[in-house]
Write a structure and sequence with these properties.
Blueprint: H1 7-27, H2 31-61, H3 65-72, H4 83-93, H5 106-119, H6 127-147, H7 164-173
Helix pairs in contact: 1-2, 1-6, 2-4, 4-6, 5-6, 5-7
């Protein structure tokens, strides 16, 4: 099977695999080892955040100036966009976020990808929102491809607010 991921995305998926390996080791370790693993997980998240920022910047450079302005500032497009421009915008939003792995399981990522793809079909959405949802969906699917459906995040700390996608996964996917 041909690898469909680009260089920067491969790096992010490598970080995702490293993160999940650390999570698995964390589960079976003592408190001393958990502390060291937590530091390593934090380091991987920091590196992946920088890699994601760099990947998004590279995607931005491929966008026409006026389209870039609408994407970065999340406004509807004011002109029709060509299919190659739409693809470049989708790639921007499809950059996978390793940070999702802190709270979301592989099953939840897959379910959210399906949910976002379904929302993208709503005819009331503007073009940018539709492309954004499809990109997010693809980014989540690429994470699932990297870590597997059976990946399980560490328990979310009691009394803390979950991120939006965890909230959606908990409320919508578990009905």
């Amino acid at each position: 099977m041909k690898n469909r991921y680009f260089g920067s995305e491969r790096l992010l998926l490598l970080y995702a695999k490293q993160f999940t390996t650390l999570v698995a080791a964390y589960r079976g370790s003592d408190l001393n080892m958990q502390s060291r693993l937590h530091l390593k997980m934090s380091h991987i998240l920091e590196l992946s955040g920088k890699a994601m920022t760099a990947a998004k910047r590279r995607c931005e450079c491929r966008l026409e100036y006026d389209i870039r302005d609408f994407v970065v500032h999340r406004r509807p497009f004011e002109r029709p966009i060509a299919s190659h421009e739409a693809e470049a915008v989708r790639r921007y939003y499809a950059t996978p976020s390793v940070h999702h792995l802190v709270a979301l399981s592989g099953f939840e990522l897959s379910g959210l990808a399906d949910l976002l793809e379904g929302w993208a079909q709503d005819k009331r959405l503007d073009c940018r929102s539709m492309i954004e949802l499809l990109g997010w969906s693809e980014g989540m699917r690429s994470l699932v491809d990297a870590v597997g459906l059976d990946y399980t995040a560490l328990p979310w700390p009691q009394g803390t607010k979950p991120p939006l996608f965890k909230f959606l996964a908990t409320k919508i996917l578990r009905r």
